[in-house]
Structures are given as C-alpha cells and as structure tokens.
Write a structure and sequence with these properties.
Helix content: 25-40%
Distance between the termini: 113 Å
Number of helices: 24
Largest sheet: 7 strands, mixed
Radius of gyration: 33 Å
Strand content: 15-25%
Amino acid sequence: MRRSTGRLVVVQVLVVALFVTLLARLWYVQVVGGDAYQAQAENNANRQVVVQPQRGLVVDAMGRPLAANRVTWVVTVDRSRLTRLDAAEQADVLKRLAGLVDLRYDALLDRIKLCGEEGAPEPPSCWNGSPYEPVPVAQDVPRDVALSLSERAEEFPAVAAEQRSVRAYPRPEGVNAAQLLGYVSPITADEYDAAREADDPTLNAASVVGRAGVERSYDDDLRGVPGTTGKSVDSRGRVIAEGAAVEPEAGGTLVTSIDARVQALTETQLEKAIKKARTTHDDVTGRDYEASAGAAVVLDPDNGRVIAAASYPSYDPEVWVDGITDRQLEALYADDSGTPLLSRFSQAQLAPGSTWKPFVAAGALEDRWETGDRLDCSSGLQVGNRWFKNYESASYGSIGFDQALAVSCDTFFYRIAYSAWMAQGGSDADEGVHDPLVEMARAFGFGSRTGIDIPGEAAGRIGDRPWRRDYWEANKDRYCKIAKRPEKVESAYLRLFAREFCADGYVYRAGDAVNFSIGQGETLVSPLQLATAYGALANGGTLYEPRVAKAVLAADGSVVRKIAPKKSGRVPVTKKHLRYIDDALLDTTRTGTMAWKMGGFPLDKVKIRSKTGTAEVTGRQTTGWVASYDENYVVVMMMEQGGTGSGSSGEAVRAIWEGLYGVKGDTVDRDRALMPGARPPKALPRVADDGKILAPEAARKRDEDGR
C-alpha cells in the first residue's frame, strides 16, 4: 500500500512540474518573445515587392543597340496562392484566364507545372524557373486585358498583370547576330537556391539569366541589382505596410567591337553565296550543291577584336523573348533545319583544305627547307599503294613554295610531308617524335580553343600520331568485335575497315602524313581558329585571343572596365619567312586560285592576300574555304557542301572587301567605306577617352580630323 501511495505522489509531482513548465513556456512566448514571433508570422504572410532592374544594353562599336529592352504587359499565376483554392475553383479560374489571354486550357496548365514534377511536359513548355516566383503565362498582353485583370482581382485569385522589361533586338542595319548575342531565360530553381546560399543580391526568383553568347559571358555586368518599392503585401497581394523604396541599379552597357554595318554585310553576303551555290551543279555527284551551312568572320589582326561573325542558317533571337514553344525549340536543334542554334563560326569543325598550306609551309621552312628549294608539282604522287593526285590533276613542273601556295599545288606539299614522315622513322616512329609540321600547326593555335569571350567554342583537332593512338584505344573493342564476327554486319566496307583497324589502327601511315599537309584527313578547324591564325600572318606573328567585348559602361556613360585584347603567344616563324609567305599569298589573289574572282579590284591600293581551300568529305560534297587578309582586316568564309573555295565564296568575300574599303569599280571611295576613312578598327573612336559612346557622326568627324 505504501509503495502505491509513493508512486502516485511521484506521478502527481511530474504532472505538476510539466504543467508549470508549459505555463512558463506560454508566458515566455506570449510576453517575452511575443514581438519577435509576431514579426516572423508577418514575414510568412507578406513579402517585399521587388523591382527588377533594366538589363544592360549590348551595343556595337559605334553605340548602335544590338540588344535592348522594351516594356510589355505580362500575366502571371502564383502557384502557392492557386493551391489554396479547391480543385473546382482552380479549374474555373484557369479556364476563364485561358480564354482571356487566348491560350488553350491544357497549354496553360502545362505552363504552370514545374519542370520535373509528375505530369509536367518537357522544357520549355513547363516552368523551369523558381517555384517561389509567380509563373509568367502570357506576354505582350493587350493593355485593356491587363487592366481588366487588375480591376477584377477578386474574380482571378492568384492571377496578376504587371508591366515588365523584356529583351528586344533593334536590328540596326538589319543585323541578326543571334549566335554572337545569345539569349536570356528565367532563373532556374537550382540557380536561385545557389544564389541564396551565396547571398547574391543581383539574383532573385524573377531574374533572367544569360544563356549563350555575350549575354552569358557578361551576364554579371548586364544583370543589374534589383530594388524594392518599399511596400509589403500579404499573401493575397494587398498592401499592408509602406517603407523606404530602394531603387534598382540598371545593368551596365556592354560595348562590343562588332560594327553593325560590317556584320549586316557579312551576313547578307554569306546567305547570298549559300543560296547561289544551291543553284550550281556539282559535276562529281551529278546534282546541285546542297550548300547546307556556312560561316564568316571579320577580325582586326592587330588586336584580335571581332568586327563581324556570321553563322548560317541562323534564327530570330526574338524567339526566346515570349517563351519558346516546343516546335520552335525542336527547329533550333533539328538537322533538317540546319541546326541554327549552332554557332558555326566558333563551333563548326571541318577539314580546312588548302587554307592549311601556309602553316605547313611555315613548318617546313623553319625546319630544313629553304625558300629557294624547288619540287615537282606533278599531277599525282604514288604513296604506298595509293595514288594521291593534284586537285583536277593540274601539273606545273618544278616550282618553289611561293608558286605552290599561289596555285595550291597538292603534290608539292605531299612531297614535303612524305619526306618529313620518312625522316621521323615512318610507320615505326614513336608517338612523341619531333614533327615540325604538326608542331607548327599547334604553334598557330590549331587543336586548342582560341579563348574567344563567348561560350561553347570548339577546340578543333589535329590528326597526328598521338591522336591516332588515342582514337584506336577508344574504339578498338568495338571494331575488333566486328572483325571477329563479320557475318553480323552487312556492309562489306565496314567489315574490311574493322579488320584493318583492329589489327593496326594506331599506326600513323604515309597517307595520313600527306593528307595532313593539305588540310585533309583527321584534322579539323573552326572558321574562328583559321581567322585567328591568318591574323598572325597579317600582323607579323602574334596570336591573339579573339574578343567581342570592348568595355562595360555605367548608366552615365563612364567606363566601369575596359576589356583589353589579350596576346596568346607568338608563332616561331622568322620575319623573313613570314614576308615570303605573305608575298606568296598576295600572288594567290593576283594570279592564283582567287584571281578569277578579283578581276578589276584595285589590288594596288588594297593589297589583299588570300588562300582558297576545297576539302573533300566522305559521303558529302566538298567544303569550300576562302581565307584573306591585309594589314587592317582578316576575312574568312566557309561553306559546307558548297563546292570549291573560290567558286562558292569568292564573290561574297570580294563583296565584303569592297564594303570595307568603299571599292567601286577599280577605285577606292572613302565616302562609301563601311569604316570611316577605311581605317583600321583600332584607330576608330569606338569609346571616347571620357567613356562616352560617340554618335556615329561625331566618331566619323573625329576620325576624319585625325584625332
């Protein structure tokens, strides 16, 4: 009995103690910490109204806007508020909204679903932005519709209409420049979470982020800093308090080295050349050239600045502004539409053909050959068990390096490469053997990225001994499997190739060496890489990392920072040999493979050096190249499946040169030149000393005054 009474007392004491503790905690929460908890509760029920900053402009070198902003009415749906309604109310609100903004009900449902959640469509039909931000479901809504939604807020809970700033593309001079500019899209949930962890004040749930081109590379400069109205609103959007507003900080203006007039000319001439090639007959295949794609680049060789860069086919950058559709996105990636999202001037990788020969000549001359050496330019050359012929079987007899470059003699360079291959030990040479031709190609930047300030650049490829070994190691299992069971494969060619590749696919043969010497085989370059390398020929041997951007300006026009050209190295070629190659390429324009496209051009006043190239591609029509330069510009054009280099692009390249210098007939007319005074870009007053962007008229006057 005593034990039971004792236990009861203990329980009673514990109950009393717990009750006292609970009362004490309630007193602390309500009296001592009441104010703090009330503030937290209010924070859960209200939010600051964020004011998005104006994204910075992207302008050309003369201040013409390439990417700007415009104000539009946007209708949004707040997912968190929508879920507070029952299913019937949600459906009723969304159906009425769909009719008001001219959307299908199911399309509206897709737009407010978070990408990745059950039942959500693939991006961009779903919402890939922050789940904490109202989802924009309609843009460029008529003003009367937006005002009607605002006035009928009780009928459309969770729906809002507001004015927002969105990207616009003014297209000065008719430019496109989609691959250079890039595009923006809403911040993703992962990006938003990362920004919150990093306490980044420039990003919030409604931010847009650069995704490609200079929009991505210089996103931090263009983005700006959001502000607030000072108003606090509750979960239903009602203003419950007002405080001090914080003005947003607009993003900086990005000044580029692009000249809109040159960019427009380059785009126009590239497209014109491609469309003309499609009506030209290919005698080899018996059908017209497909001319499937192309690219062109105009550089300043003295600093590597990009004056123009065109890619064809292209697309309208406005497609990203209103929310891209599934069909539009598929078209940007589709092969049958030419994959227009691909930036071919920096991402296309193709055999360079004979535009490669000046670099082979430089490697040979710096190794053991002399400018006075002569070799037979025969119609063909037997290498092993294969006959390697000159293009169109031309024969010029005994010639030197200069004429071999001018007339683009393949067999001359075959002999150079075969001699080097034999001296290195032929097929038995080690992968690390000294190869002067390969090493010179690498010295000119091939096989690695140029370092241009836009993302996604391709590195190209040099098909040398180490590459062949690596490729064999990566693929031998696949081909050896085919070689062991050839009856499983229908293609006789594939069976033969698999057997040979499995046995000794790592061997660098004489045929590989001679193909390398004329820009064929496994070596691939981008138009930008080729333009950068020709820039080194033009400026006396300095390689530059190409730059699109020149400076970032504040809202008042002052310079926030300059983006200076950057040297990436010097090529190991003597001045004597550079001058020799330079003179030979001048002959290419006067009397060689480019001469038939340059008749009547004032080459005594504008001394253009050039090299044409025609690269054969298995299963496809030839790739045509023209690389050209003078002391002020480098102009390179490439056309896939378009025929010979000069035949496909020669007229277009000439037209670009005519525009740059104001050439009319056989004279140079400075008043018609795209560049003021037809002077090199470095001399133009693109950004004034005080940081202001000069108007084109003021820039022209200062340049003509010699200041």
